């Protein structure tokens, strides 16, 4: 379907101004707090948005000024972001896990005049680097008064706004056009400083319309959200949920409680990252032998396909399904709360066998492709149109094609217009109306997109062979024993791979077997090394000899954002890994 421009001049500010129309008493938000799930209606949300927006105007902020939010996913994040939009300002999210130096980059590059911090701990980060931020005028804190590192509480801001009349907000909202900036989202920055991706009011309003057409969220849905709202995927899901007038339930802030909270919320729609699905997959299949699991997936998959097609299920097939449902599939659905109609996985690839299993169990986990520069999404799988291993077909009004060198190109009203203050990067990324994604892919005869790897990650061996490392890495990460896998081999005679262990799986094995922990750690245990060797051998079997990892090393710890190897969205910073573990890598070529 061909692309078009911003829709009839409509904006996200206009969407916010009418967010409660016809549904003031409906529940908009829920949030786990002190063991309870207090509710906020659309009417209450609307009132609070307007109160905060008036307060921001009272602070002297002018249309187009940037306001940052440094907080976990919670109702106040939502209230603040929508108030910023209603006041004609620009939302600049910051991951709550960012270090002070990472916060300084975003705040400084964007020129944010105000930062809304969650609590005293987040305000302290800003205080540490405030001397380097001449544009920053005010630090507002959500919880309490923030202590000496904050200027105002969010309640103080609301009080100041009492002098601003509602007509002022209406003027600001109606004066906002589709080409005005809505948000600057800083990309993960795996190879350098994050780039500020500027998304317009029209970009996101168009994206809401596209998501409606794709029927991703339906009017009676309950959405459980734990992903950071600084990430484009979480932001779009939230806006789409509010656009459809459904309830968004925010997690309680503890990621270890996500699975128990699913049973409390009983969501019908779940956006997530692969790790959650993989953990549930491992949890419910750990006691099932491979042959039984294979039969269950085959039977369940055939039943789900027939149901989707509206065809009758033969009695013998239904009987076999009922047995697997009683012993396995019902446990899967219950792990998600028992009502999940659709789950969406993003930010990283997920193993096809995991997707096939959840499909068979009646919990469709669907993948899509997108990036911040596409206002989150460009393709999406649906229950009606999906192929395991594919990231779906182009969304309505979005065009995709593959360039001669294999790079995926995207065009549509959701594609961003520029990087903030970085015209060189903008010119290199947007060419003749097409977004050059940096991803390598292929499109089959029916329009389904398959991602092969990242263009910049291609390894060229000393023998001149081009290798996409993500393929073998992803195959290795399907092992329940392996957390991360990073291939290396540029200008080297052959590829090698660094592996980190899944801490939970290894700890459980050690407890069950009473294994004696070597002085250097469990990664040195011969049994563990044998398990990893088998996983490498199995993965290598799918590739040509020159593409296989000839040697591997198991690192003594996992990669993390805190130690600098991962971005806030858990993407591997390859250059950092290569530098930090250079001695380990060099040793693999010396032995």
Poorly predicted segments: 1-9
> What gross morphology would you assign?
globular
Corresponding CATH architecture of the domain at 458-590: 2-Layer Sandwich
The strand count comes to 27
> What is the fourth-level CATH superfamily of the domain at 458-590?
ANL, C-terminal domain
Which CATH C-level class of the domain at 458-590 is it? Answer: Alpha Beta
User: Structural class from helices and strands?
Assistant: alpha/beta
What's the Cα radius of gyration?
Answer: 25 Å
The number of helices is 20
**Strands of the biggest beta sheet: in what spatial order?**
4-3-5-6-7
Cα distance spanning the termini = 55 Å
What is the mean pLDDT? 92
Percent of residues in helices comes to: 25-40%
The CATH topology annotation of the domain at 458-590 reads as: GMP Synthetase, Chain A, domain 3
Amount of beta strand: 15-25%
Task: Summarize the biggest pleated sheet.
Answer: 5 strands, parallel
Protein name: Acyl-CoA synthetase
Family: Belongs to the ATP-dependent AMP-binding enzyme family.
GO molecular function, one term: long-chain fatty acid-CoA ligase activity
InterPro entries: AMP-binding_CS, AMP-dep_synth/lig_dom, ANL_N_sf
């Amino acid at each position: 379907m061909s692309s078009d421009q911003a829709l009839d001049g409509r904006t996200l500010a206009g969407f916010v101004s009418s967010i409660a129309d016809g549904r003031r008493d409906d529940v908009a938000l829920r949030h786990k707090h002190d063991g309870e799930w207090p509710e906020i209606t659309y009417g209450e949300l609307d009132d609070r948005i307007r109160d905060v927006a008036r307060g921001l105007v009272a602070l002297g902020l002018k249309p187009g000024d940037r306001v940052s939010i440094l907080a976990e996913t919670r109702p106040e994040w939502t209230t603040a972001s929508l108030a910023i939009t209603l006041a004609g300002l620009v939302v600049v999210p910051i991951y709550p896990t960012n270090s002070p130096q990472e916060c300084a980059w975003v705040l400084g590059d964007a020129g944010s005049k105000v930062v809304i911090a969650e609590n005293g701990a987040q305000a302290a980060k800003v205080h540490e680097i405030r001397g380097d931020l001449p544009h920053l005028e005010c630090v507002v804190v959500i919880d309490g008064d923030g202590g000496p590192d904050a200027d105002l509480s969010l309640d103080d801001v609301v009080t100041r706004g009492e002098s601003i009349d509602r007509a002022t907000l209406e003027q600001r909202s109606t004066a906002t056009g589709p080409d005005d900036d809505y948000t600057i989202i800083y990309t993960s920055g795996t190879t350098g400083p994050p780039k500020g991706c500027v998304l317009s009011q029209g970009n996101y309003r168009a994206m809401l319309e596209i998501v409606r057409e794709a029927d991703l969220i339906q009017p009676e849905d309950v959405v459980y959200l734990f992903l950071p709202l600084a990430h484009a995927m979480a932001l779009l899901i939230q806006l789409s949920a509010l656009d459809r007038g459904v309830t968004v339930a925010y997690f309680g802030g503890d990621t270890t409680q996500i699975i128990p909270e699913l049973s409390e919320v009983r969501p019908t729609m779940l956006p997530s990252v692969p790790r959650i699905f993989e953990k549930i997959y491992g949890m419910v299949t750990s006691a099932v032998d491979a042959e039984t699991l294979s039969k269950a997936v085959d039977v369940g998959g055939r039943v789900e396909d027939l149901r989707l097609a509206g065809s009758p299920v033969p009695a013998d097939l239904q009987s076999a399904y009922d047995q697997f449902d009683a012993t396995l599939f019902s446990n899967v659905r219950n792990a998600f709360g028992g009502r999940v109609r659709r789950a969406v996985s993003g930010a990283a690839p997920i193993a096809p066998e995991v997707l096939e299993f959840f499909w068979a169990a009646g919990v469709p986990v669907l993948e899509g492709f997108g990036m911040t520069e596409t206002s989150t999404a460009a393709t999406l799988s649906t229950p009606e149109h999906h192929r395991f291993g594919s990231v779906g077909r182009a969304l309505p009004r979005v065009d995709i094609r593959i360039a001669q060198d294999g790079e995926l190109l995207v065009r549509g009203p959701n594609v961003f217009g520029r990087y903030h203050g970085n015209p060189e990067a903008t010119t290199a990324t947007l060419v003749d109306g097409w977004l050059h994604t940096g991803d390598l892919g292929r499109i089959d005869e029916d329009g389904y997109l398959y991602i092969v790897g990242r263009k910049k990650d291609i390894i060229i061996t000393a023998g001149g062979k081009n290798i996409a490392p993500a393929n073998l890495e992803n195959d290795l990460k399907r092992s329940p024993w392996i957390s991360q896998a990073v291939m290396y081999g540029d200008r080297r005679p052959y590829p090698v791979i660094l592996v980190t262990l899944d801490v939970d799986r290894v700890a459980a094995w050690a407890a069950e077997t009473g294994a004696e922990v070597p002085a250097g750690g469990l990664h040195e245990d011969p049994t563990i090394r044998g398990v990893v060797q088998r996983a490498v051998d199995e993965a290598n079997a799918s590739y040509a000899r020159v593409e296989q990892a000839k040697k591997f090393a198991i690192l003594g710890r996992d990669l993390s954002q805190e130690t600098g190897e991962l971005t806030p969205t858990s993407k591997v910073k390859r250059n950092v890994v290569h530098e930090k573990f250079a001695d380990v890598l060099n040793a693999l070529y010396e032995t």
